[in-house]
Amino acid sequence: MKTHRKKPRKSRFKSWTVLFSVCLFIYCFGVFIGPWLMKYIYGMNKIVQVIEENGIDAGAYYYTEIEGSYTGQQYLTQTLQLLAPEHYGLTLPLISGIVICLLILYFGLRALPQ
Amino acid sequence: MAEQQGDQVVVDVGKWEWSELWKKEDWWAVWLGFFLLLMGIIVYFPHTSQMHGKLTEIEGKYLADAQKTDKFRTIGWYQLNDAKNDVKVKSTSIGKWLSTFSKKPHGWKSNPVDAFIMSETAADAKNAAAMPKYEKAHAAEQEALAVAQAAEAAAEAAGFSDAALNEEAKQSIANWRNAWLAASKAKGKTKAKPYNQIGWLIMLGICFALFFGIGTAAMGQPFKEFVVGFIFVFLITILAYVASSQATMKAYGIGYAFWAIFFGMLISNTVGTPEWAKPAVQTEYYIKTGLVLLGAGILFEKIITIGTAGIFVAWVVTPTVWLVTYWVGQKIVRIPSKRLNATICSDMSVCGVSAAIATAAACKAKKEELTLAVGLSLVFTSIMMIVMPAIIKSTFPVDKQLILGGAWMGGTIDATGAVAAAGAFLGEKALYVAATIKMIQNVLIGVIAFCVAIYFTTRVEIQETGRTVGAIEIWYRFPKFVLGFIAASIIFSLLYSSLNNQVSGLGPAMIDQGVVKGMGDLFRGWFFCLSFVSIGLATNFRELREHFVGGKPLILYVFGQSFNLCLTLIVAYIMFYVVFPELTATI
User: Fold this and answer.
1) 0.95 exceeded by the pTM?
2) Residue ranges per domain, chain B?
3) What is the DSSP string of A100-114?
């Protein structure tokens, strides 16, 4: 990590000006520019409407942060358990899928260039 | 024993000392992560019999109706589904308190103060504005339910053998579900409550400072200096959350990771990171603790959710894309850093930011490499979230838009939030399929991180150091926090399955909606955000630019994502419509 030497007064003023200008621009983008721009991006308005109506956090990074993952899991689990039980649980194709995945990783990583 | 290489990466060299257990951040990450998970168990597990009782009661009430026929999903089938979804141990009073205590800043549109404070008058006004829409939607739902009940009764009276009556009932029930969905969304908007988050955030900051400060002190750094610096890092973290919770930023899918890195870099490259704040700029420490918590959410039983077809889309395509892209990165694009290559591959093929964090930590990538990978993912996620549903709507046959489109988006769009948004755009079923495929891919993070750690320890580091290593040397070098990450995954997977064996739905109610969401997740987001702020505060624009020379990371990402799009679409089509069409028909 680099240490920062104390900057001259003029340079410090410039740095603070840049910092505040960027923050101001971000605020303006969020409140004025961004919403205006949405009108010109094809399909954007519709997806924004869906996000707002469903209360989806489009910035979520992991399934546990999305309610749809749980409702979807419950829906599909119940579907398979009650309507297609032969496809639920540790079926042969499911196990073969897992085994294939592990084999691909094992042989693939061994074959990668050093 | 640790040896510093330059000022970036810490590499283990062959010597084990027991004091590492309390002197190394890898182990502290494990202890702190498990402390929180243990707290989750202590807090929530005494409620197991209560949740068990609720689920048994629900099954007694609706199961017979749900199983009346296999010709279509009955009203009872949906009521069983909805009632089970509502059983959550985090809804107990302690769970609600924990949620308030660890709450991130709230959503806002034009006034940033709304992120922290909402008065009772404002909350009442919001509820009153939403009430007419809800009342209308509720009335429509009741009406649709009555029609659906009549249609189902008519089909039942014919012994479910009249195809026309069955079809009519199916359609009426589908209409009721749409009305129910609209009513439940409208109801959610009428539940605004007043809040003042400032006091809670101060308390949370103090707790985090003590939580991480104890480990820092044990590792030999002055406790007081860490706490003073932490105040600064925590304030930037709050700022990142405030920016990410702004309505427009949410709509564009620009999450906290971007803002944390951005604000950190903005400060460090303009006014400079204050010297007194640097003791708390501890990227690895926060990230590894967050990853141990992430491990608890990697539950192996989840992979059976979408059954046999989904596993091939999520678990066979993903490692194939990872390996091919890595190979192309090394042999054709010639990415100078193997660690950057691996981080981009995980980021693009598995699930974006969370996979990038896990891989970068497992292969000991530089902070600039993680920043680049995360940046690429965020840009492409935003684009794909808007473009993919539009392509599916305009080019896919109508009968394949929901399942095939959902599986395609779930397997290719990096971030889970964007997957959910794009899926919901197509419809409820597409959302379920897309989110579930992404969830199964999320489970793969553990496997990929473990394999990457082994590969870099046994292959790449040998080449870099020019020394061959035995089994004991592998242990010395192996990033130990990965053990905590894997252990958390195995322990909670076993708990999840054993609870589900007692009564269906108990695993999700106690683990998903308890220890994971009601404890681990509440803090994991904060820890990742703290680590991204630390990355930003320690990153120089010039250093970042050096990693981007020739646009090679971008070329690699574009190649990998294009390959991913093609392969996922082909495999999803084959699995859902050629190999298992009868399974797809039931979804």
Assistant:
1) no
2) 28-42+197-586, 120-193
3) HHHHHHHHHHHHS--
